[in-house]
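Service request form, structural biology core

Requester: graduate student, group of Dr. S.
Request type: structure prediction, single chain
Budget code: on file
Notes: please return the result as structure tokens.

Sequence provided:
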Amino acid sequence: PVVTVPRGLCHCGRKREVPMAFLGKHEPREELETKLSDLSLDKKLFRIVYTSVLVDVGSLQDIIAQAQVNNPSHQIGGQLTVELETNKVRQILEGKYRDLIVLFEKIRRDRRHKNVCLESRQYIDQRSFRKWGVMTLVVTAGLEKQALIKMDVKNEKKTTAATSEEQKILQVEYTSRLKNKDDIGEIMAIARIKNQVLGVGGKLSLYLQDSFIRQTLEGPENAINNIIDKIQKDARHSEFKIQYKIYPAKRQFTCWEARTYDESSNIGAVPLGAA
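Core staff response, request fulfilled:
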């Protein structure tokens, strides 16, 4: 259901339709039409918070790439939180009232989302998020431990928006040793969703007896270099060493996977199962 503003009250000369789901259930229709006919509302800052469930968490890469292009041009800012185990999304969006109406309606109809629910909506005097691009990922590792990380999409050198034609595909293999093998659950949980967002594939192998890691990463050059730089500086790793860097003619890893082996790294290993 929508609320339609009379033709004569709309500055563009056309009927303006706004989703009832966006406006709320308890406001009289007459009051809504009066509010919507006020042209100053279109220029006021507004904030909405909604939740949804991603049908496929792999669609995050496309969603973020589109937002990088569309949201800055409409001066829309905000923050996106994704819970890995449930695929549940909570997003805060700030911008002009009219722009948020249009955007929320697109999200509500987007088949990549389900169970879209408007949590709150309000006018604001000033922005809390001046630019879109800071995505907070809430990742649950195991039954109890939670890792909260921030990923600045813009500072990732726009790797999510880049295609293989715009950037070379780089493949890197490195080895390292975990100081505490209990950290692997958190590392793999964060890597799984972050690599999907950045379009990175590869394989991580962890040998439990000596906490030895061998990982191959493949994807856009900027993304791979950023990841390798962060791993190299990560205090949870020791004995970090790059084994090789190549630019393959075509991609060999379309997705990222991780396996654990109940053996030492220097003997034949039998996989316990994919992480």
